[in-house]
TrEMBL record:
Superkingdom of the organism of origin: Bacteria
Protein name: Uncharacterized protein
Keywords, in A-Z order: Membrane, Transmembrane, Transmembrane helix
Membrane-spanning parts: 12-31, 43-62, 69-90, 96-114
Originating organism: Billgrantia pellis
Length: 133
């Protein structure tokens, strides 16, 4: 059985799923006339921020060979996006979107703590450690 040396990024995949669902929920909140918050600047802001979160999670999921500093920067920006969108969802009283941001925070933690490291630096650091010992 062949295994992927980089492993599977479960947190990144969960972030991708949550950001896709959040974008759909934000679009419904923005354009649904019966909810009382349709076509307000806050809903447009949430729509744009969830679209940016989707782009960032796509990069984390599919661009696994990016440098570590870029992956860390994208992960940090996604954390800020999750917190800001969660606050906006709370203020707009969109409970489903707020729940998605909570699950997204858990997915972010899984990505940061448990997902295998990305980047080329790990491979070279391991070779250096083996050469020293």
């Amino acid at each position: 059985m062949a295994s992927n040396p980089r492993g599977v990024a479960y947190g990144a995949w969960l972030l991708l799923a949550i950001s896709t669902i959040s974008l759909i929920l934000a679009a419904v909140a923005t354009f649904n006339e019966g909810n009382g918050i349709a076509h307000t600047p806050g809903t447009y802001l949430v729509l744009v921020s969830t679209a940016l979160m989707l782009i960032g999670s796509l990069m984390l999921t599919f661009a696994r060979g990016m440098p570590r500093w870029l992956g860390g920067l994208i992960a940090f920006l996604i954390l800020l996006d999750l917190l800001g969108t969660g606050l906006a969802a709370y203020l707009l009283q969109t409970e489903w979107l707020l729940g998605c941001m909570g699950v997204g925070l858990v997915a972010w933690l899984v990505h940061v703590i448990a997902d295998p490291a990305t980047g080329k630096r790990d491979r070279y650091m391991t070779q250096r450690k083996e050469a020293v010992s």
